């Protein structure tokens, strides 16, 4: 060590230099710019994947409801709802359920699916109300149904 100090003419600690405040600020600004460009795209992708999961779950529920209709002769009423897939409703003589392996799932945002049967009892509508749990909305809060085109 003494030899290095003598050959260079100054102590070793003087040529070990840290980052200046300006260099640190430039790095922080660059990280902020990259985050500003990448993170919105990432979260948009997450929202789209949740909508795809909701559609896949609704497709499975629709199949179970169709099997229920074939067995019982009609879809569950609005009052019976999706729980009729798991528990025999009163008056359902030919019920062969449960029609799902597990409990009725919540949508990817933790809300219950909205089930409606047409007055004719021949058509159903399944909807996820999105991240806000309310009808309508845009982006992540947009309602998702099987009829949506994506």
Automatic annotation (TrEMBL):
Q: Does the keyword Lyase apply?
A: no
Q: Which InterPro entries match?
A: Bac_GSPG_pilin, N_methyl_site, Pilin-like, T2SS_protein-GspG_C, Type2_sec_GspG
Q: How does it sit in the membrane?
A: Single-pass membrane protein
Q: Does the keyword Transcription regulation apply?
A: no
Q: Where in the cell is it found?
A: Cell inner membrane
Region feature Disordered, mapped onto this chain: 126-150
Where along the sequence do coiled-coil regions lie?
none
The transmembrane residues are 21-43
Q: One short Pfam family name for this protein?
A: T2SSG
Q: Which PANTHER family match?
A: GENERAL SECRETION PATHWAY PROTEIN G (PTHR30093), TYPE II SECRETION SYSTEM CORE PROTEIN G (PTHR30093:SF45)
Its protein name is: Type II secretion system core protein G
Lineage of origin: Bacteria, Pseudomonadati, Pseudomonadota, Betaproteobacteria, Burkholderiales
């Amino acid at each position: 060590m003494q030899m290095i100090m003598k050959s260079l003419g100054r102590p070793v600690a003087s040529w070990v230099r840290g980052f200046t405040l300006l260099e640190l600020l430039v790095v922080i600004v660059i990280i902020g710019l990259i985050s500003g460009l990448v993170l919105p795209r990432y979260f948009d992708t997450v929202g789209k994947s949740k909508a795809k999961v909701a559609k896949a779950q609704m497709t499975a529920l629709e199949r179970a409801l169709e099997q229920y209709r074939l067995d019982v002769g009609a879809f569950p009423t609005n009052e019976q709802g999706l729980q009729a897939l798991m528990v025999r409703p009163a008056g359902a003589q030919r019920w062969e359920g449960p029609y799902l392996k597990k409990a009725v799932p919540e949508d990817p945002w933790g809300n219950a699916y909205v089930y409606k049967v047409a007055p004719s009892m021949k058509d159903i509508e399944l909807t996820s109300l999105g991240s806000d749990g309310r009808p309508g909305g845009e982006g992540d809060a947009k309602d998702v149904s099987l009829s949506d085109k994506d």
